[in-house]
Amino acid sequence: MVSVNELGLNLFEELVEISDLLNVAYHELDNGSRIVDCGVGVPGGYGAGEYFTRICMGGLGEVTYRMGEINQFPQPFIDINTDFPAISCLGAQKAGWTVKAGNFFAMGSGPARALSLKPKHTYEVIEYEDEFDSAVICLESDTLPNGEVMEKIAEACNVEVENVCAVVAPTSSIVGSIQVAGRCVETAVYKLNELGFDTKKISAAIGTAPIPPVRGPKLAMGVTNDATIYYGRIFLTMNAPEIKEYLGKIPSNTSKGYGKPFNDIFKEANYDFYQIDTSLFSPAEVVINELSEGAVYHVGAVNPEVTLKSFGLI
């Protein structure tokens, strides 16, 4: 079976090779583990964002950019496609690992999760786990990990610490905005998984979302989430006539919290995630092509007004 860590390592090595051309910085720690800073102490950019996102998907997704518009406002978009939706999105890209060591905290995603099996239930459901002697992790953090952090990752992945590689970017950075918007397809696959749908039946997935402007650390989490919640557009191909039973629960506009920028919703919930309706974390609009019956379904709609308000354009 395909190894997301092997594919991710190939991309990591490419990133290291051309780091000077991508406004990123390569570091090798005393214990031999390796890090590419994509936005903590460096500017990063679109090239680095492409690599970060492809690594996050375990090398099983393609990433392109284009210029579009939202209500006549020029806006960059990221386009994502994958022919391995369950593995690339749930088995790699999903931010399913909270990495803590000392004062360090990061949301961990990427191929290394398929070695550490975090969370284990995800890999049982998609019937996948990786076997490889290197671990490649993507860390969403405003600080770089030290040797202790990398040792902890190595232990969880059952690999030697010198075989641990990390790419790191803060949410509030160009690469941060790109890689979160690049989770638009993953958001759809994740939502279906949470609803109990067998995501292994999705044979191909493609999607797009606007890349949000960098508006500072206080607004970053909300702005990046709003890109998919209010303007993410996804097309899924599958062999699953039972998808009809799930259609009404897929898009974000079915959530009780829908209709305001995420930062406003978060503030009203007294900054308590547990007070937010989790069904909000969904793409705005989804088209599904069900192959066995030749059916096509459409649910949801984009919301330009809330998107532009979140992005600071109106």
From TrEMBL:
EC number: 3.5.4.27
GO cellular component: cytoplasm
Keywords: Cytoplasm, Hydrolase, Methanogenesis, One-carbon metabolism
Top-rank taxon: Archaea
Pathway: One-carbon metabolism; methanogenesis from CO(2); 5,10-methenyl-5,6,7,8-tetrahydromethanopterin from CO(2): step 3/3
InterPro entries: METHMP_CycHdrlase
Gene Ontology molecular function: methenyltetrahydromethanopterin cyclohydrolase activity
GO biological process: methanogenesis, from carbon dioxide; one-carbon metabolic process
Catalytic activity: 5,10-methenyl-5,6,7,8-tetrahydromethanopterin + H2O = N(5)-formyl-5,6,7,8-tetrahydromethanopterin + H(+)
Compartmental location: Cytoplasm
Keyword Magnesium among record annotations: no
Record Pfam families: MCH (PF02289)
Predominant subcellular localization, coarse grouping: cytoplasm
Purpose: Catalyzes the reversible interconversion of 5-formyl-H(4)MPT to methenyl-H(4)MPT(+).
Sequence similarity: Belongs to the MCH family.
Name this protein carries in UniProt: Methenyltetrahydromethanopterin cyclohydrolase
Species this protein is from: Methanocalculus chunghsingensis
Lineage: Archaea, Methanobacteriati, Methanobacteriota, Stenosarchaea group, Methanomicrobia
